[in-house]
Amino acid sequence: MTDLRKDPITGRWVIISKERAKRPHGFAREPLDRGDSELCPLCPGNERMTPPEILAYRDSGGPNDSNWTLRVVSNRFPALRIEGELGKTADGIYDRMNGIGAHEVVIENPSHDVDLFDLPEKQFQNVLWAYRERFLDLKRDHRFKSAIVFKNHGLAAGAALAHSHSQIIALPIVPKRVMEELLGAREYYRFRDRCVLCDIVMQEMEQKIRIVEETAEFLVYAPYAPRFPFETWIVPKRHQCAYEMINENQAYALAAVFRRTLRRLNIALENPSFNFIIHSAPFEEGASDFYHWHVEIMPKMTNVAGFEWGSGFYINPTSPEESAKFLRELPE
Amino acid sequence: MTDLRKDPITGRWVIISKERAKRPHGFAREPLDRGDSELCPLCPGNERMTPPEILAYRDSGGPNDSNWTLRVVSNRFPALRIEGELGKTADGIYDRMNGIGAHEVVIENPSHDVDLFDLPEKQFQNVLWAYRERFLDLKRDHRFKSAIVFKNHGLAAGAALAHSHSQIIALPIVPKRVMEELLGAREYYRFRDRCVLCDIVMQEMEQKIRIVEETAEFLVYAPYAPRFPFETWIVPKRHQCAYEMINENQAYALAAVFRRTLRRLNIALENPSFNFIIHSAPFEEGASDFYHWHVEIMPKMTNVAGFEWGSGFYINPTSPEESAKFLRELPE
User: Whole-prediction pTM value?
Assistant: First the structure.
């Protein structure tokens, strides 16, 4: 069984995944293999290699047929289990609960070799819509307090399968980074009666020096204090606390600008490993005035993360003004 | 000039190191080269390749002579500069200050090929004593609020030079991870009138299942909610808020147990990359009752950090009970 455990000093929760338990010699990494689609559990025809689908888009046929264009399944090696009670207990001064949660894989397209940013806009939109559908469904489970979408692209970003996919994790807690944003944004709102991300969008649009692209609905920019070179955020210009509030038009607009941004990064940094993560308000009510959902894209250009992990203090060799200018001026 | 910039949502400070500015194609990494000690700026005889020494241990001879056993110099490519004013300014809703701070390199021994954990205990003690001396000196500069010691060992941990060394950074702010511990520990103290790390030490000594080694002065254990496989902490059993408070006997005791712990990890994980960091109370008064200095050792066994960076949520495949048992039972 998997444990969720809370650090008694900082309040950070971690997953201790005993089922995937590793002995000291179990850490060897297999390199990402792009070639072998016969053995790829995410390829059409291999549906039996994954748990049954939770959601799929297809024009005809039934569940788990191979003619899908997008498919969502449970992770075969889930960090968290969907069945069971939370079982919150104390262990002396420590706090733990069972590793209950959802861990899903969004198979973004049937082709083994096509990356997310190489999909047509319409298919990219389907991916974003699938995230929304899953959020709305997971939200109905009252054991879950929050969900996040993320993608690991490339070995340095932690991808384990070459076939392009993203992941959704729903949690019985609010993860630390979202909690920090939540507390910071609430503090700002109390003081100023305005949403901090709305104010950031306003200032970025005035200063213009960190903007990569502006559309009617979204602002793409390098944040003022980025942790990583070429870290890039996509923020809705209208105030909206939760990702699942997007409508169809917004999803289409986001698909266009998100796809262009990933393509820009891919050209500028020559096919970098990257992660993106969608931060969205926790499921419980109360954050609607001050929290503002957004996408954070983090290319993995440097390897100096050990110190940063230990201190929370990031040294970034590329200023956001430079990275935004570079991305802005790239031919599309 | 280097900027210190504050993220307006979470309050995290980052260093934007414009002098080391990198264009998109500047991120290629040179592999760690162990062979070439002629070109190593940390080797004896190459003292002119580093800035002048700040501190050195040698039996005879003068500053910057080549007969040292330990040497502390400024980093040649410092993330922060020692000269200048803080120049705190607002930029609209953003906050920044000049990148003032100290960034020093502790060259732990003259031999190009001898790792820290292969030094004799006495020399290991010198390294720990040098940290203390530098802390006491840096503390006198009232621009600095805190200092941290850290070591990157191996490429995956961000080491750029093969010659064994550690680093000290003194900062005009308190880094985020230390601040979190400080706030969490203060909260705990307010509630219970006890230091949280003292309580942890007590419970670990009772439960015994996460202990790697116990000595008269120190407890070595795997923390209850570790972020990384084989994460290991060394905590003084007596309550002490700041590293620089250690006396000579404690330094000797710490050297012995710290060295053994690194050797255990090195054997168990077959020469892993690792980081360690010493968390110590900020220089300003007021934390003495509730903060408790300690060493955090983080082997780098997994590469799945992208998601963790984005969420602050760690998935750890090795439970602390397993890792402690494995390390405890290793023949020394």
Answer: 0.92
